[in-house]
TrEMBL record:
Pfam families in the record: DUF5062 (PF16691)
Superkingdom classification of source: Bacteria
Gene3D superfamilies in the cross-refs: Uncharacterised protein PF16691, DUF5062 (1.20.120.1930)
Lineage: Bacteria, Pseudomonadati, Pseudomonadota, Gammaproteobacteria, Oceanospirillales
Protein name: DUF5062 family protein
InterPro entries xref list: DUF5062, DUF5062_sf
Length: 87
């Protein structure tokens, strides 16, 4: 798994966008007091459930891998030329 250049910022953006998606879908709400790990897990599982991302293999579903999957997902959602996609 190769780390993306702006992976930390991409994960933050994925959490922000994923929280909005979760709320609009009616699947729950991300609270400011929730830990980053809980936010990542909830958004990852919702995206897998809705078949927006492919699930990780059994045994590989840990927080670092979920973070990477969310970073990849949001990098595909951002428009071309977005500052987080620059090399």
């Amino acid at each position: 798994m190769k780390k993306l250049k702006h992976e930390t910022e991409l994960v933050k953006e994925a959490i922000r966008v994923g929280a909005v998606y979760m709320q609009k879908r009616g699947a729950g709400q991300i609270e400011a007091t929730d830990s980053a790990g809980n936010k990542i897990t909830a958004i990852y599982r919702l995206l897998v459930l809705d078949k927006l991302i492919q699930p990780l293999a059994k045994g590989e579903d840990n927080e670092p891998n979920m973070r990477h999957k969310l970073a990849l997902w949001i990098s595909r959602q951002l428009p071309a030329g977005h500052p987080l996609l620059e090399d």
